[in-house]
Amino acid sequence: xxxxxxxxxxxxxxxxxxxxxxxxxxxxxxxxxxxEFRFDNRIWKEIEKAEKIYxxxxxLPQEVENIEKETIFIDHHIQxxxxxxxxxxxxxxxxxxxxxxxxxxxxxxxxxxxxLSALGAVGDIGERxxxxxxxxxxxxxxxxSKEEALKLVQLIDSxxxxxxxxxxxxSVNVILELEPKELLEYEKWNKNVEMINNAIEDAISNxxxxxxxxxxxxxxxFNIISKVARKVVWEMSYDGAIVVNKNFNGKGQIYFRIxxxxxxxxxxxxxxxxxxxxxxxxxxxxxxxxxxxxxxxIDEVLNVIKKYKC
Length: 310
Fold this sequence. Notes:
Layout: E1 2-5, H1 9-22, E2 28-30, H2 41-49, E3 53-56, H3 61-64, E4 71-74, E5 87-90, H4 102-110, H5 115-125, H6 133-141, H7 146-161, H8 165-177, H9 180-184, H10 187-204, E6 208-210, E7 213-218, H11 225-235, E8 240-248, E9 251-258, H12 268-277, E10 281-285, E11 288-293, H13 298-309
Parallel strand pairs: 1-2, 1-3, 3-4, 4-5, 7-8
Antiparallel strand pairs: 6-7, 8-9, 9-11, 10-11
């Protein structure tokens, strides 16, 4: 069994939920290159060897269309219907339903709900997840406070933010083996968080604001771009954030996040589709867009975003 999952908390806990639901002992879990929405050679080699494949929390229908083995594709991002007959696509968005996380879709599909289902939601929508009754119920079952849930997400996410793909993949087994209170004290993840927080503060020091939308440019080898955007929109209460890492390990990285105030005004799906039509590696959902490109293409991506933003 091969499980291909996103590198963030939602993707990781979705993988753990699937493993638990299927009672798997023999499995391989793998994530794409961090920050890149594609399957690399390493993934395709594992696909060749696999008997059955699960793709979780990865908005990569273009890659899934090319898999010629039994595949279960579970996601909650905006995407088209898969035409590949080998693929069973589980995505409530296709039926007009909105789920806070892939973990919720996985839990519904397998009828398995626990604190990990809630963590995925907290990972994807932050403190807004606590307004969901189911999230609070699941956290309370494990005696996990809101503060502890946020800390667990921060710790799990730290693996991808410091760009350690192997650590992301290993985190699935760590979560399978340890209880939540043990995860909170996991030394390696706590050291990661300390380094990350320093990098985020440095990035936000370069903030510029127009019409209550923040614009931030910085350079970092850490994948902190989404964390910077979330902090600016969720904690600093800006309507939106356009964040640019001008040198993300030799690439350009752009992230656009908007608050609920702008979801009906800015059609994020149209921006994503426009970027894709121009050949850019972009993805997202109704309130967020992520794109990685050549450094020389950053301005072109920003011009597309600004056109729709206006």
